[in-house]
Design goal:
heterodimer; A: 258 residues; alpha+beta; 5-stranded antiparallel sheet; 6 helices; globular; B: 303 residues; 4-stranded antiparallel sheet; 30% strand; CapZ_alpha/beta (chain A); acetylation (chain A); CAPZB_N (chain A); F-actin-capping protein subunit beta (chain A); CAPZB (chain A)
Chain lengths: 258, 303
């Protein structure tokens, strides 16, 4: 299993779907471990009742059907399916509406979905998902990207309230890829995925939604910066190590940048 | 969901193994091999896959191997392949025998006359090789290059067209820093005697992989063309080297520009740093939001 995860870490993020299905066929007995630990780009279905799209994940799945956060119905229809309690469903509805506006503010498009369900410890779990196609044929406002995809999965475990404080454990995964293409510079493509965790104990005075929302916003900001400066930055450093820009070469005649 | 416990047959396993090997990032095939062997748990299938995948991987990644007698490095490419595991190094006039799976040079012998270019071609090839060595030494901290004749190697004198190819390969592997990268340039030069012109076509490919607590990869590719007049071997060599130097430096600049556009421009098409309001999202006003969509107009989303 460790070897399988090693492979997933090295294979190009764009090929992770192929790699995962190859691993699933080689290791059928580890399928549940693999599926839970390996991140895959998000899929989407359209809720025919509301006409809106919603994101598919393990958290809104029951058998082969997926529950829409808009209509609270499963597609394909399913009998005896799992639903959140009516109270939790109220919170889920509000979360979807608010998160949709958050998404619009930061992503200027894209699709979002929020799913909640009770867990065994008298708390609950919420999953906030965003999928954005930033390509110029998709919803990339400025037309820079020939291809661009951002998939975010935020899973928050909310512990039971104790003295008006609740414990929140957020695990966030971002998968992204972008490609620019033009005559003078050819094809430039960056892809990646990172996963981070954040734990906080917060007062419930402002409500769960507010707490979760702020954590997610902070996390997304951090991950965006990290991807841009640290991760992409390292690849840039590597390129400049392989072939330093001319100014550097002139200054250091035997530039061996180990 | 019906669980089909069907074992993959050997051919399918071999194809999967080959896929993983062929799609290894630069410099990481041995690590992939190790993990793959563990997952496959089938020595025979792995060995078959490796013997098919490694040669293809090595040639496409333009790997370079140390020659046994410390005469330098030999590149493994389709341009200098004599047999499946024999590669010519024209600079030293040696032929290296290579073990693709172990990625080492196991033997070396002098090249036979018919394996080398004619003296007429060799003048051009050698002059260009000398210029390229100078260029690569100054532009790449750890780069390897070579010049091969891919068409017309037996041309005896003026009157025929021929083609040389310049291969530049640089790699930096820092697995301890979770970072690896490679730069590959292939420049085809058609010597067109009939029109007294040289047509130059370049293909540049850069890759980098950073995987400390994450997995991020860069793939960049570029093609370019240029031309110059047909001159004496030394002058041709200098012209060609200048063309290559110019285009590669320009390409590096455009890569840097692509990177500097990222945070504020390119990335924005995926996710902005902040909303148009330039403030963080007002989560505490959620009560207002659930009542009406007018909020969107207030926040100016409709633009």
């Amino acid at each position: 299993m460790e070897a399988a995860m090693g492979l997933m870490r090295r294979i190009h993020p764009k090929q992770s779907e192929t790699a995962l299905s190859a691993l699933l066929s080689l290791l059928p007995h580890s399928s549940s471990d693999l599926l839970s630990q390996v991140d895959q780009p998000l899929q989407v279905l359209r809720d025919l009742e509301s006409g809106k799209e919603y994101i598919l994940c393990e958290y809104n799945r029951d058998a082969d059907s997926y529950r829409s956060p808009w209509s609270n119905k499963y597609y394909p229809p399913l009998e005896d399916a799992l639903y959140p309690s009516s109270e939790l469903r109220k919170l889920e509805v509000e979360a979807n509406e608010v998160f949709s506006i958050y998404r619009d503010q930061y992503y200027e498009g894209g699709i979002s979905s929020v799913y909640m369900w009770e867990d065994d410890n008298e708390g609950f779990v919420a999953c906030f998902l965003i999928k954005k196609d930033g390509s110029k044929t998709g919803q990339g406002r400025r037309g820079h990207l020939q291809e661009g995809a951002w998939d975010a999965i935020h899973v928050i475990e909310v512990g039971p309230e104790e003295e008006s404080i609740a414990h929140y454990c957020l695990t966030s995964t971002i998968m992204l890829s972008l490609t620019t293409n033009d005559e003078s510079s050819g094809t430039f493509s960056l892809s990646g995925s990172i996963r981070r965790q954040m734990n906080m104990d917060l007062s419930v005075a402002d409500g769960h939604l507010c707490n979760m929302g702020r954590m997610i916003e902070e996390m997304e900001g951090k991950l965006r910066n990290s991807l841009d400066q640290v991760y992409f930055g390292k690849t840039k450093e590597m390129v400049c190590t392989l072939r330093p820009p001319s100014e550097v070469v002139l200054r250091l005649p035997t530039a061996d940048m180990a | 969901m019906a669980e089909e416990e069907c074992e993959l047959n050997e051919k399918q396993k071999r194809e999967i193994a080959k896929w993983f090997l062929l799609n290894s990032p630069a410099g990481e095939i041995q690590y992939i091999a190790k993990d793959l062997k563990s997952v496959l748990n089938d020595e025979k299938v792995y060995n078959e896959a490796a013997s098919e995948a490694f040669p293809l991987y090595n040639k496409s990644h333009l790997i370079f191997l140390e020659l046994p007698n410390r005469s330098g490095d030999v590149l493994v490419t389709t341009y200098n392949e004599l047999e499946e595991n024999e590669f010519l190094d024209p600079r030293t006039a040696l032929v290296a025998t290579v073990d693709h799976v172990k990625q080492v040079c196991t033997d070396v012998r002098p090249a036979a006359d018919e394996e080398l270019s004619s003296p007429y071609i060799e003048e051009f090839r050698c002059a260009l090789d000398a210029e390229m060595l100078k260029y690569v030494a100054e532009a790449y901290p750890k780069g390897v290059c070579s010049v091969y004749c891919v068409d017309g190697k037996d041309v005896e004198g003026p009157g025929s067209n021929f083609e040389l190819v310049v291969v530049i390969s640089a790699a930096k592997n820092s697995p301890q820093n979770f970072c690896n990268g490679s730069w590959r340039s292939v420049w085809n030069i058609e010597f067109k005697e009939d029109v007294q012109m040289l047509e130059v076509r370049g293909k540049l490919q850069v890759g980098a992989h950073y995987y400390e607590e994450g997995n991020v990869q860069l793939d960049a590719k570029h093609e370019c063309k240029d031309a110059t007049i047909f001159q004496a071997p030394d002058d041709c060599a200098i012209s060609i080297a200048n063309i290559i130097r110019h285009h590669e430096a320009e390409y590096l600049e455009s890569l840097e520009a692509s990177y500097s556009n990222l945070p504020d421009t390119t990335f924005k098409d995926l996710r902005r740093k902040l909303p148009v309001t330039r403030t963080q999202f007002p989560w505490h006003n959620t009560l207002q939001f659930s009542l009406t969509r007018d909020i969107q107009k207030e926040l100016g989303i409709d633009k």
